[in-house]
Every structure is written in structure tokens, then in C-alpha cells.
Amino acid sequence: MTSNAAFDPEAYARMIGSESDTVGVGNCIGEFGRGYNENARIIIVVFVSHQSRVSLAIPLMIAILKPSVDGGWHRSSRMKYLDTILFGPKNFEFPGGPRRWQGRFRHSLDYFVYVLWNDKVAVNTGAEVHWTVVKAELPVHANDWTKCFVQIIVDGSHVVKTKSTKKPGVFEWQQHFELISKTDESVCRFELRKKSALSLLGSQLLAFTEASFSELLLKVQKASHLGQNVSLPLQTTKSKLAGGDDGWHLFFRLVAQDSLPVAKVEYPRISRSLSEVVLKLEAFMQLGDAIAQVHPYAFIAWRTATAVYTVFSCTFWIILKAQVDQETKLDALGSLMQDAYLFVDDVNSFPEKIPALEETITKLFVQTSECAIFIQECSGHGFAKRLVSTAWVERRINDLTDGFTFLKRALESRVAVQTAVVSFRIDKTVKHIVNVQNLMKLHPADMDDPSRPECLPNTRMDIIGDIYKWATTPIGPTVFWLHGFPGAGKSTIATSVANLFRQQRRLGAFTFFTRGVEARTDPASLIRTIAYQLGEFDPRICDAISRVIEETPSIKQAPLHWQFQRLLVDPLRSLEDLQWEGPVLVVIDALDECGRTGARSDLLTALARESMLLPPTLRIFVTSRAEKDIYNAISPYPHIYSRELDLSSETNEHDVKAYIHHRMVAIRLQNEYLDLPSDWPGTWRTDRIPRNALPSFCDRRYKQTLSPPWIVSILLLLNLPGSGATVLLRQTSGKFWVFVIVAENPLTSGTIDILNADFTTGRKKRPCMHTIQHLGCVLQWAADKPIRVFHPSVDGVDGNAWHIDKSHHHLRLARQCIGRLGVALQKNICQLTLSRSFEAQNLPDVTAYPCIHWIDHLCQVQSSEPSLSQEIDGFLHKHFLHWVEAMSAIGRPRQTITLVDKLRDWVDANCSHDDSLRSFVRDAERFCQAYVHVFEQHPLLVYQSALPFTPTSSVIYKTFNEPTLPQVDGFRDQWSPLLTEFSKPGENVTSVSCSTDGRYIASSSKRSISVWDSTSYELVTSLLPVAGNATNVIKFSPNSVHIASGHMDGSVRLWDALSGKEILATMKGHSEDVYALDFSEDGTQLVSAGKDKKIVTWDIRTGEMHREPLSGHTKTVLCLCFAQNGARLASGSRDRSIRIWDTETSKAVLPPILHHDGGVNALVYTPDGRRLISASDDKTICVWDADSGALQQSPGKIDVPFILQGHNSTIYSLSVSPNGALLASASKDTTVRLWDIRVGKELPALVRQHRLPVRCITFTADGRSIVTSSLNDPVLRVWDTESTGSMGITRRHKGLVGSLSFSSDGKRLASGGKDRRVRVWDVETGTMAVELSLEREVYRVGFSLDGSKILALDDANAVFAWRADTHEPLMASPNDAPQGESQWIDNTETKEALLMFPNMSRIMARASWRDRFAVGTANGGVVINNDIDLPEKNGICC
To answer: Cα–Cα 20 to 30 A to 113, which of 295, 374, 417, 704?
Structure first.
């Protein structure tokens, strides 16, 4: 055997085991030792497997060897036998030496060899050590890196570093250093760094590792035998650098100048104590039913102690001199633990004593498990990479000693005690303040369910034991996936395991998914919930996670893989002291009930891939059905152990029998009135039941038909045959069963009874509890608690007796919801008073549930049944406003938009024959879009504000208007093309982009980038660039995941659209403002351009430039546009030219297109890629042939260029509808115009008039709407592309009316606007009394308090006054300036709120006096409402 040969311990063991005597053993050892250097030490251990305990290998003798001068090996001392053989005669000594002993026991011994490299080497104080940093091996993607160096830090202070590498991909140094180690525990930190291109930025930390001097010397000794440099695996600082840490290694050589004494080798005496505890536990577990409740804890203690003892039997501790005192204390702890088990002999004789001491015994078992894990950590074979600090160990020994002392005394005195189990996991010296508020920001799912069932005592112990062993074994997979058929018991196992670890204070998190509970089926909540529970579990973890939440407030909106990394991986890896404290378990139960297959793919990917980065102390236990998507996501990863729950084993049959026995006893006790015999139902029946039940555990089809609880509780307890049970369920499925199976959320029995009522006849039905009380093993229920399906498989399976047609029942439930709402809904359902403040109300579930879910149930059905459409139409015509009010009352006003949008799609698909219903639903959608901002302020504003301003020709207005409501006749006769508007006050919009999936609208301002929900128009998240770096332009990526932004400082950034975080380093390639961005169709490339005239292409996977910048324009580049196939790129510039580029060659493919007389501001390709459309400062739009660059001919005309004209000023922006039929243009002339590019004509009826110049325009993904924004305006407006409605009000000013004010007596109204006129109106007649002129636009008007003066303020803040009677000008002071108006109208006498004005761009001014109000509009109209309470006087249009 040479020094270069690989050492195979197993082969060597077989070789030695085949020798007939110890001489042969010695020869083999000598042969093995040849060729190794003089610093090596080898410990040879010979084992015997004791015949009565074949699972435990017992060490019998050792030999310490070292190299001889001639290159061989000799023993440093004579062969020594251990003084005691465990499990054998006490103090047995082997006489006569090795040969005689070998001959005597040759036939009864099995030999094993264990070669132990010294795992702890004492280093003399002040030892001088020579280091040679050799090289590093890095992954392939680092082949182009240069300027890398290694920095070595000793004990946090002494720093040396190598030179920087110069050649790309070559990481070799061969540099020598001299370091002084203070102690053997001196810690060396090796850092691989890369110098930054900018010297001011210093260097970037790429990877690192830490090790003590003793560990490094151990590695040196191993390397000396193997003839290699020492290799240290490096840990990367960012997961995206690595692609896994396996490819990062640092190589070095180390030679200590001073002698390195071999550590003292001792056999730990505490193993004797462990062996005695194992025997006591084995004896205790033989007591059977008497210990049923504590058996799981005894079993776990036995498994843990046995595993740790086995480790001691196979290795020796290498004990430093400083640890001798600590070793003595540890031996004393072992003796104390052994003495605590003396009670076992007593209870073996008197089992009846166990119940009184049950709690104390349980705590002793749990304490034993903790102590065994602690001993494992101290031995160096635990989770920690190196032995923990002496101070920490001593504190834990003292705590455990106190705990065992207390428990021992309690057992001796036979008195039950209240004491906590001592866990060495929590370090009490850590100071921490738990930031509960930060944890709550994660919005964790509610996981409170104390009624979850556990495994019965003494069942499932094999799998639970295996799970416990996996969790407490430091090496091996860190994730355990248990899968099996539905109802096989996975959830009960998960609950039992969770409770075992909870008892030991090692349960970090317990999460479970529950089908039918909305909050427990969302894949997005899992990682946040685990992080929340881990934070509650350990204050140190809480601190680390709290810091992440503070740094990333929008973490809950981030992608799941990013949440996993930031909320779990980074905080846990940052806490090194957790490695000392043993395992922490996270349980994820019923993963298959987490959302639908497609919806959970991101979660599965994050869980499978990112979990490999977690520290080994965090163990994740997952249960689920073996769904295909879960299997495919998990199976490729070696760190995940997969195990199927075997239901055909003998152990499982035993568990089923135990379960049946338990259920029989429970049924007999619960039915005392039946006078059942004590052995009911008889031994032979009890034996037959498991045979009938076992198929339900083994056969999936049969399992989905019935479960053992169902068989027992229905067929036996109710004394029904199988057919009778079928009849029972079939009868109930047509009544209440629908509410259990298809309800969106679990309902209480009271709610089910009301929803199940006959709303036509009013006839009461039998209460559902009459049936539910007999289904306790399939349904989980309690008084006033929601009813849940206990086994998800009862949901129904095609082809069996229990199949449920969900579509049919969704229809029935939808109809029952409509029926219930028809009875319950009414105006002012919560008996509120209109006010400016409102808090959400709690409607009863029997009303709230139908309000929220009736449309959801309806959309699960495909039905063109006329009676159904008539039913819906009748309900909406009577109760639509009541429903909107109720949704607002429970705090869900914006959900009305989403629900009515879904209803419109359903009606269009299923009720095309019902014009009345279709017309109503379209009007209802417009109503919710236009006025949601009103009725979300107060539910009663549905009637007081939204309805009065609804167009008079609309179905909604005609249906619900009544004389008792405010009347605003003549305000509007048709729906405005403006659907809605929304904004961030104070942030003027600079750019707009819509996501291609239709879900989001993004807008930018000088301060931030905002992402809005495109249906409810709620703010989803904000992206915050560096302060002072204004955003000029944004663009959604084709997959709607990212947003690119261009900035004033020339930078380009890429953001995650939902998390709001920058996902790449800032891309810097421009020297001045960036004005244009576009993505390639495949989303891999991004182009940017701006004031520096360059066009830069970026690879968004790396953030690097894809090629050299394109150049050719002589002035600012204003617009960019990729062709659909990505082969060409068009650019437009202030130099009036359009250039077409080949994206592969970076060359211009056509000569510059020079036709416009002004700068080219906008470019867009049509969806078919055949046309390129441009817009310019010259007020024209040109349509070009995309291939040739020639100006196309106008459709249907000869020799007429395809040029669109109609705007009166610069055209800023263009957008083409997704179907390619319409073109929208935005101009400085304050209009948006729509063009039919198929015929080359404007659609003049669809002009969208704005108050300010329109800067941005874009179609939504469905093409039904356009989104616009204006210069110096924070408002985003959404316009319908088909509506032709108008204000319907006669203009009384030649421009926008900006201010209104009533006189103090309410008889006069003053108005002022952009036409520089102040007009005074007679309120009763509506005629103008006087017109006054200013030199500037009128900003505000008013009257003095005594009514003697007419007042005005212009846009330069100059104040004007006139006599109210003669209209003569008066001197005015700043104190005369009129005050602004409120959006609310109050009765000036009673101070009661009357209504709130809609936030519509058409209403620009408002005023009120008592119960009168007036509005001024953008088109110059003025409307006066004379008396809200006297409708016959209302609606004077001035």
C-alpha cells in the first residue's frame, strides 16, 4: 500500500478480520503504514459484537501506532485490553496476552477495524506555524475573473493576504506566511475576495470558511497521508454566485515549527451510564398498556440514547488537557441520569403507580433525549462543525444536572411535580427584545388547530422513531418527505412528531394546509408563516428575521424563492451558535392541499432547491400525497429523503388493530344507554374489522370510498349495513352536504341551516346537526364552529357511491346564496348614519358569505338555463345597490369590481340570449369602477353620492333612482369614456406601462415607481430608486415579472415587479438621461437610449452589455422599439430620423428614414410585424413598411401616403391595440385620439379630452381600455375604447370651472375658471346676475361673511373684491382671500354629512349651503342642486 493509494476502511477491516491471530493483524497494520510520513498517528480499535446485543459493537482493545525509522510501523506501547467488557462480567481481565486471548475466543468473536485520524490535536501556546496558500478551485462561471486574493484573519485581528491574480480563471498564489497561534482553539478565517473596478469601493467578499488551528492540523495530518494539499470547502456569500457551494475550494499547506503533541486518548466512562439507561428503558417499554400514554416518549428516549451510545462504542474521544475537569462533570451527569432510572425496578413490580407519576416520567424521558443529544454534541459528532466552547458546555452540564436531580427526587418521593424540562438549546445569556410587530408584518396564516388528532399510544412507533432518528442525526438528508395514500395517517403522524418535538422545545414551526380553508391553501403564505413561527420559537431567529423585514418592508410580495433565501436561509446561517444546540424541526403537513397543481409550482421549486442552503440543524419534515408535481419537484435533490408510508407491513396491521380496539372502547363508553357488554362487539368481530379496514389503507380506490372511522361509526354504531350508509349520504348530499363540500370557506351548522332553507315557500328543513352528529369520524365539528371534512378524500371520486357532482352543487349553492340575499339585503342594512368616518362592520356569516361568494359559485357552472338568467336578473334589478352597500360595510368595496368583472364574463358566455341581464351587468361594472372611491368611504354613499351622479340614461340610474335621493338632473346622460382615475398625490407621472398578463399597471414619477392592480386599481407595491435620481421611463418585461427603468443619471435598473427589489446591479452605460427602453420579445435583451445619443443592449440575465453601443443619431434618442421577432430594432431621435438596426450584427439595415419635420417621439410596430408607425413634433403620424422602410400608401387610395393628421400640437406617445386594429395617440394638444389603422381614419367620436397635455398612453392587455397620464399631473386615467358619452351640460364658462361659492344667505352662487371670468348666478332661477373679468385665470371665488363683497383669487395669488350690490371694484387685502371647498357636502345648519362628490376629472369645483350644492365641470358647465330633501326643486342647470 503506497501513500497515493485511496484508503478503504471497510476493505481493510475485512482483511484484518480474516487473519487468524494478532501477529497477522500486526503484519497487516505494518503493511498499511508503509510510505506515510513521520507526523502520522493511527489508532487501531478491535471490536467484538456481543452475542446478546448484536446491534452494539463493543471496543475490546486499542493499539496506538507510529511510524518506525525504516518506513514501517511499530506500536508505541504494548497492546492493551480495556478493563471492562460491557454487557459482560464486571472487571473481566484478559490473561495471558493477545495470542492466548485470541486463541480462546477465536470462534466467538467478530472483528472490526476502525481507523481514527486524530480529530483533536493540542497545539502548544505560541506555536509558530508556516502557511502556504496554494490555489483555489472555482465554478466554470468564474473563468473570466481576475484580481482575486485570499485574506487570512486569526482571532479576528491578525490579518495577512496574498497578491491579486492577474490571469482570468487562474487562481494560484503559492505564497508563504508565518502566523502565531495563541491556543489550539485560535480561529482562522479564510476569505476569497475580488477587487472592485473602482478603488473607492474596496473589494467584494466572494466566499469564506472558518476553522480552528486544531482542525486545520488534523486536516494537515490527513493530507500528509494522502499526499495532497489541504482542501477547505468555501461557503459563498450569495446563492446566485454559486449554483451550489460544491465547486468552491481553497488549497493550502501548513507546517508547525513546534512539536505537536498527540492528544490523550480516553474511552468515555459516560457510555457505561448510557448503556444502563438503555437497558432500563427496554425494560420499561415491556409494561404494555400500563404505559400507553408515556410509551412514545420512552421509545424516543431509548432510540436517542442507543444511537448516541453506538457512536461512543465506535469511536474514542480525543480529550484536551483543558477539558479534563469538564469530562469529570460529564461523567457525574451520566451517573446521575443512570440513578434517576432506579424507579423502573419499582414500577415493574407495581405498575399501578405509573398514572400518578406519568407527567414526571414523561419529563424524565424527554430530559434523557435532550441529554443524549447534548452528549453527542460534546463528543464532536453532533451538528456543530467543531467542539463547542467550554463555558457553554459547563453551563449546560449544570442545567442538566439540576434537572435530573429534581426529577430523581420527585420519583423517589412519588410526588408529581411541576417543572420545566431543561433544554440545552436556548442560551439564557442571549439578550433579546422580541419585535412582535415586525413578525406580524409577514401576515402569517393562522395555524391554531388544537383539535388535530395524534397517533394512538403505541402505534406508528416505527415510522416516528425513524423520523426522530433522522432529525437528530447530524449527517445525511435535511428534508424528510413522507408520502402515501389519502387517509393513510400522514397528518396524524405529522401531528405526533410535532408534539414530540414541541415537548422537547425543538419544534421550530408546525404548518399544515387544509383544503376548504382559504387561509390554509395559499402557497404564498407558507414561507412567511414558517419564518413567523421560527421567530416566535427563538428570540435570536426573531431578531435576524426582524432585521430582514425592516430592510425589506415588501418582503411578503417578493417571489417565493427570494422569501426563502431572505427569511429562512440568510437569518439561520447567520446564527452560528445554533449549530451547538442540536436539531430544530419544521413540520409541513398536507403539502398536496396547498393550492392547485400549477399554483404551487413556485413554492415546490423554492422548497426543494433553497432548502439545501439551510444549516444542517434545521430539519424539515413534509407530508403529502405522492402528487406528480410534488414528486417531480422533490425527487432530483439528494438532500431530500423520500419515504412512502407502507401500509401493508405487519407493523401497520398491529396499528390498525390497536386503533380498532381503541374505537370499540370509545363507542361502548359513549353509548351507555345501549347497555353493551364489556367485550363488545366480541373478539371475533373485532378481529374481522381490521381485515375489512386494511384495504382502505392499502387500496386507493377503496380508501376514497370509505375510511375505517366511517366503517366503525356508521356501520357499527348506527347499525346500518353498507347500503344503508349509502342511502344516508345520498339523502344528505342533496340537502346540507353541498355546503360542506363546495363552500369556499367552512360554515357553521347554523349558517348551513339558514342557507339551506326554502326561500320560496319559507318551509323549514330538518337541522343539519341531526345528520352531522352521526358523521363525527368524517366531519370535524363543534357547537358554533365551522364544519370541516376530516378526510379530504370524502370530497368525492368519480365512479363510486360517494361521488358528488360539484358543478351541480355550485349551482345549487349559488342559487341558495341569491335566495338568502334576496331575503336579507336592504338599504342601510347596518343601521348607519352618514358621516365622514367609517369602520368596517361585522355582518353575520349567513349574510356575509353569500355576499362574498355568490358570484364565485356561479362562475363554477356552465348553464344557459333561461330560468337561471331570469333569477339573476331579478336579483340584480332589486338588490344590486344593497349588495354593493353590504360589500362596502364589511370592508370589501373594491372586490365588487373584480366580482362584477367575473360576472360579466360569465353572463357573456352563458346568457347571450338575455339582453336585459347583459346590459345591466355592463352598467354595474361601470358603476363600480367609477364610484368605488366614493362608497369605500362610507356604504351609504352608494345612494347619496354614487347613484345621483350616475348617467341618467343608464340602467342603474333608471332602476334605482327615487325621489328621496339627491337629484342632479342634467349632469350626465351617458357614461363617460373615463372609467376611473387613481393617483399618488404629489407624484407627477413621467411614464406608464401595462403588464402583458393584464394584471398590473406601472407608473413612474420623479420619486418612485408604483405598481397598481389593473382591476381594483389598488397600489400593489412601490419601487424606490436612489433619492434624487428621477425616473424618466419604465417598461414591463414580456413575462410581466420585471420592470426596467431609465433614470436621469444615465443608469438603467431592473426590478422585481412584486417584491419591489432591484434584482441586478445597476446597469451603467450612459453618461446622461435615459429616455427610451424596450425588451426583446423573448425577454432576454433590454435596449436603452437617451440624451447621449447611444443605444445600449443589455443581457438581463447578467446585467452586462450584450454588445458595443449602437451609434448614428446626432441628437437625443427619444424612442426605441423591437420588432416582434427580435431581429430588428427601430430608434427615433430628436434629429428627425428613424433608424433600423440588425440586432445580431449591430449594423443599420436601412438608410436613415428622414421624413418628419420634427423630432421623432414615438415608434411602435404592429402586432403582425408588417408596419412601423412613428409620431413626431410635426403633429403627424406616419405608417411605414417594416421591411423596406418605405412610407405606405393610405388604405383604399392611390398615391396617397399613409399619414394620419388631426392633432394640433406635438404627439408624444403611441400605442397599438393587441389585435392590431386601433392606434391611440397622445398629444400636447390635451387630447388622446383613436385611429382605425385598417382603413386609415380617425374615430372622432372617441376623442379623449384631458385638462393638460397628454404625455403617456398605453393599451391594456385585453385591448378594451387605454391608460393615460398628463404632464405635471399625478393622476392616471383609464378610458374605455368604445364609449362615446359626454358631460351633457351646457357650457357657461369658456374654460374649466375651477371654483364655486355660495353667499351666506344661499341666494347667490359665484363661479370662476380658466376663462378669467367671475360670474354670479341667481340660485333660484339659474340666471347670471353679473360677469366680472380678471387679467389671469381665476383660482378661487367667494363672498364675504356679511355677503357685501364678491371675492376672487387669481393664479398668482392676487386678491380682488367687488361690491355685491353695485359690482364696483374695492380695495382687497390678503385676509379677503376666499377659502377652498371640501369634497364633502354638509348641511350648514345641522352639520350632518349629505353626500361626497365623486373624484371625477369632469367635476372640478364644488360648493354647498345648507342642503344645497353646486358643481363646476371641466367643460365650463355649472349645475345647482337646490334642495336635497325637496327633489321637485332640484337640477337647475346654469
So the answer is: 374
